[in-house]
Amino acid sequence: MVRVCQSTIIDAPIDEVWAILRDFNGHERWHPAIAFSEIEGGEPVDAVGSVRHFRLNDGGELREQLLALSDKDRRLSYCLLEAPLPLMGYVASLRLKPVTDGDATFWEWRSEFHPPPHRRDELVRLVTEGIYQAGFAAVHALLRRRNAGAPVEARPLPASVAPASSASAPRVAAKAASIRAETTRAIVVERYGGPEELQPRAIALPPPAPDEVRIRHTVIGVNFIDVYCRTGFFDLLQPPGVPGMEAAGIIEAVGPTVSGFSIGDRVAYACPPVGAYSERRNMAPELLVRLSDDVSDETAAAGLLKGVTASFLLHDVHAVKRGDIVLIHAAAGGIGQLLVQWARHLGATVIATVSSDGKARIVERLGAHHVIVYSRENFAEAVMRLTGGRGADIAYDAVGNDTFAGSLAALAVRGHLVSFGQASGPVGNWDIGRFASKSITVSRPNYAHYTDTPEKLAPHVTSFFQALRQGAVRVEAPTRYALANAADAHRDLELRRTTGALVLVPRA
Amino acid sequence: MTKVYVSSVIPAPAAEVWKLVRNFNALPSWAPFVVESRIEQNAQADQIGCIRSFTLRDGGRIRERLLALSDYDLSCSYAILESPMAVENYVATLSLTPITDGNLTLAEWQAEFDCAPDREATLMQQIGNGVFQTALTALKHRFGR
User: Fold this and answer.
1) Under an 8 A CB cutoff, do B9 and A101 touch?
2) Residues A388-440: tens digit of each pLDDT
3) Same domain for A299 and A390?
4) Which of A122, A147, A172 is a domain's end point?
5) Would an 8 Å CB–CB cutoff place A5 in contact with chain B?
6) Which terminal Cβ of chain B has fewer Cβ within 10 Å, N or C?
């Protein structure tokens, strides 16, 4: 048996090099000896066991099987199944290690095989020089070209790869970005706190991981959940981090293992991980929603999270049906407006509460049957009066502390209180024994549990877009803020100065 | 458990670098922050379990036990027994890997330890940068040509 081991230093960050090497079918794009390569049976390039079938420039055909792939160790092993040369028992692996001193990459490529003795030297030289060293030189040259800003190839090399282990929430650059690293403008929360913690910064933007896409945001949604992330009430954001879970934009780059999306696609999303308060970001595409021409970026960014929320609140958490009496708090707010319109469309009687006469007019226009200005009137009593003492079948309450007790009081027997937020503060501790007086159900739904897989999310996206098309719900033109002024948007949202949705717009 | 990882390319063949760094008692000859070192109990410097006791330039004293030494893998692991750094369960490994392209050496130095949470960032900086990178930079210069 012979062992061959070759290693080199590539002057590029490890993730950039790994992006090129982890693609088991990617060698046709960089290795000079290879003319054509494909994965048999259409298997994913990173499925262990997949077989690449490739042809050399000299016409020889080979088949190799992926034996092991580790994004953790950045190591890939494979064996030869068929070759025109007697490289018997050939098993090879390549691995990368970071050179932290200078942000470069150590690349080692090694193999073992059993050559016939009379061809040993020839084959060792072929593997050492013809495969490994030639491969090193090609990747050196590729990265030099790429870093010089030259167009890479006619067939665009996936710009690819961030640490596959890293969550996609943008990491804040710990130090001044090196010349090579791209940056993007973003709003960074350095520590949990008030709106003043939303600071505009330039942060590092690594190339997308193999299974990620990069999105250039056009409009970014602002939601109350962002406030909870900023204050630390939800731990979706770990400081320093970039908040935001909703945006619309255009796909700018696609990792090599992503399928179903291409550069230039119009998309929107409303999902963790946080990171939407930025000009550009990388994220996994599973929960991306493709936008049709009749849905504008602004509508998507202003409405998707709220629309999806309204959809699961009205269909999954409680299936609202014709004749139900539905109490909706903060009805002039982003989700409130959608709940009012949609509940009415479903045939429910809608009782809405708002904080001011101005908001009352908006909600009336949206079709609420009754509107209560709760700053002037005890809303629980009003609900009882309006329903002839029966009470509401469902109360949608995202106000929390100020309204929770009243919402319970306003419920009918076997009523359902859906507490999906706490804009005015936590609801405190309740003895559930007291709920027996009316056989009350209380739900505390969490957005993620209804939307964290494509299977869960898709029906709600479909039903929301459908409702938009039918005119069952309209998304009011949102209030726009420059991305850099995100703190103002949060202040206005928390002070309840706003109606409808708020969006952030990156500078053009 | 906190982890620190630092690596550098040393412009010399791995065997040559190894000759210098495998000596557990030789820190003063290449690490700029160590002024004096001795092996306790009259043990040999390549005896697994031996303890080196050395003095830092700033006067601090550190005692470390040799846990593993491999002339095959070109690596050396040790644990801190006493130090002014307030770390616990500190185990570090210095290892070399040949870079065939140019006949250079990849030197990796990593440590794992426990510490008070508010000291973590400072210690990571102090150990990663102040100790490991400083020593590797000294190695680079020593073999620089």
Assistant:
1) yes
2) 999 999 999 999 999 999 999 999 999 999 999 888 888 888 899 989 999 99
3) no
4) A147
5) yes
6) C
Closest-approach residue (CA) in chain B for A108: B99
Domains of chain B plus CATH, in order, are: 2-143 (3.30.530.20)
In a domain, residue A461? The reply is no
What pLDDT, on the 0 to 100 scale, is given for residue A459?
Answer: 92
With CA atoms as reference, the chain A residue closest to B129 would be: A101
The domain of A244 spans 182-303+476-505
**Touching check for B116 and chain A: CB below 8 Å?**
no
Residue B106: CB partners within 8 Å, gap ≥ 6? A7, A9, A97, A99, A106, B7, B8, B9, B10, B96, B97, B98, B99
Question: For residue A4, with 0-12 CB atoms within 10 Å meaning exposed, 13-18 middle and 19 or more buried, which class applies?
Answer: buried
> In angstroms, how far is the first alpha carbon of chain B from the final one?
39
pTM more than 0.90: no
Q: Give the chain A residue nearest B99 (alpha carbons).
A: A7
Tokens of A399: 């106000």
Tokens of A124: 């060792």
Q: Is A11 on the interface with B (CB under 8 A)?
A: no
To the nearest whole angstrom, how far is the Cα of A149 from the nearest Cα of chain B? 26
Q: What is the pLDDT of residue A508?
A: 53
In a domain, A163, yes or no: no
Question: Does the interface ipTM go beyond 0.85?
Answer: no
Alpha carbon distance A370, A367 (integer Å): 9
